[in-house]
Amino acid sequence: MSHLSSSVRSAAPATAQCATAKISILEATKIYAAKTGPVHALERVSADVYEREFVCILGPSGCGKTTLLWAMSGLHALTGGEILLDGQPVQGPRPDQVGVIFQEANLLPWRNLLENIEFPFEIKHQKVPRDLIVALLEQTGLAGFEHSFPRELSGGMQQRASIVRALAQAPSVLLMDEPFGALDAFTRDEMNLLLLRLWSESRQTIVFVTHNISEAIFLADRVLVLTPRPGRLARAFDIPLPRPRTVEMTFETEFLELMREIKGAVESGSRRTLEV
Amino acid sequence: MSQVPTELRDEIPTFEERPVAAEHGPIDWSALTHVQGARSALEVSVLIAIFAGIFFLLQGILDWTHTPTYVFPKPIETVKTFVNDFTTSELHSLSVTGSEFLAGLAIGSTAGLVLAALLTQKPFAEKVIAPYVLVMVTTPMLALVPLLRLLLGFGLWPIIITVALASGPMVMINATTGFRRTDLAKIALARSYGASTLQIFWKIRIPLALPMIVVGYMVGSIFGILTAVGSEMVAASNQGGLGKDLVYYASLGDMPQFGATILIVAILGVLIYIVFYLIGKRWASWEA
Ligand SMILES: Nc1ncnc2c1ncn2[C@@H]1O[C@H](COP(=O)(O)OP(=O)(O)OP(=O)(O)O)[C@@H](O)[C@H]1O
Ligand SMILES: [Mg+2]
Description:
By secondary structure, chain A is α/β, with parallel strands linked by helices.
């Protein structure tokens, strides 16, 4: 139990001690029953994510980031521990509140862009908010491509479409799984700026998974570093950089200092598991 | 966490492209749907030139060798007969064969589709049943017709059943391949918006499987039309049909009529192909 309390404390934001936790990850443990034997993906990860906070989960490939995010989305069950959303245990998807943005754009190739954005409304039997969608398409530079099919769009455009699809639902929580992982560095910067701009207007609670240290620092209020398999919470870092953030900031000493420190945490995390 | 859907439990959350080769079932007919339609003027004219070449070469050889008309139908006379003598009797035969084919395809393909959709949900059942479906695909169902005649009499049903047995497994085998493409990320996407199992079936699984289903229909209906005509040649119903006409004209030595009937069957086959090609283009073209 002492383990629990210590890791919860280390993952709390320094600036928002009194804020209420929107999402609580409590001792999340996941062991996959693979054909080759059990795979220990997550080991007692505990952390809180606060309302309107932008948290990045950072870790090397295979450390269980997707596993954790899917559990937070209610897409699969944990082996141990639980996830609370507004204090209630997550027992399945929560389409009313939570929007999930998947690795790669994950658009449906047999639907055009607009039909893809309307897909969630169809599933929920809800009226499509035309004005909101038009505004979002405008903001993301997708106006005029409503009737294009995914294969006719660039990777960046597809990813923007998937963001519009999620935002059109007006979720209060966004869970994003390496959404820009497949994009080149320039497009990634552009998408990060776009995401921050959209977020500054609506201020959802965002959990953003990435394996890119500078992306994590650029976006986040707080960065949670996971160790390689089994994924444990190595450390949590507050990112005190002012907002709005600019690409120029990434060249400043404060940013580079954070980068060095977090890189150290990631590497010492890997070394620790190598020694074990 | 009781409400977590079984189909997502303990799946590897990866999003890599699945290798296309592994998606096809034991028989891969997908090349059929991907035949390029001839479009440019050059292509069309060459196509027509080849046809004309074969047409007149055949005519020339038959004239030159003085092959009598009761041995082999000459192209020109065949076309003449086709154009002039497309009478009510041919129309009747066409409608008989056509209804046997359509009824058989409807029954067989529906059964095949439903079975494919159900079996792919249960890997064990699929493994146990798939070999039998393969056996059905490779067995000439024509052989059943005399047997069914004895059991069911001289109506259309024996042939309808045979057509269903010939086309159904073909549809099923391809649909199975289609339904097996469970794109976990897309299912998870639908789930994340609260989709029910039924919604996932209609809005994700069916569209994903559609290209393969169309291939199944295309191949299944070509099998079906051949089986319908073949069955009529073996043991037609009291209504006749194109297959019975073939046997009849052959026995008379009326080769132009025989050729004209074959022409009808061939045109029917091509029309079926075109119909499904267009359906595929309209509904499954996203998979270029
Ligand atoms: N269904 C499964 N069966 C067995 N092992 C699994 C399964 N799903 C995931 N794993 C394993 O669990 C570990 C964590 O997987 P996960 O996909 O969560 O990693 P990740 O951090 O998202 O990696 P990446 O950055 O590459 O996306 C990996 O070692 C993976 O091989
Ligand atoms: Mg991942």
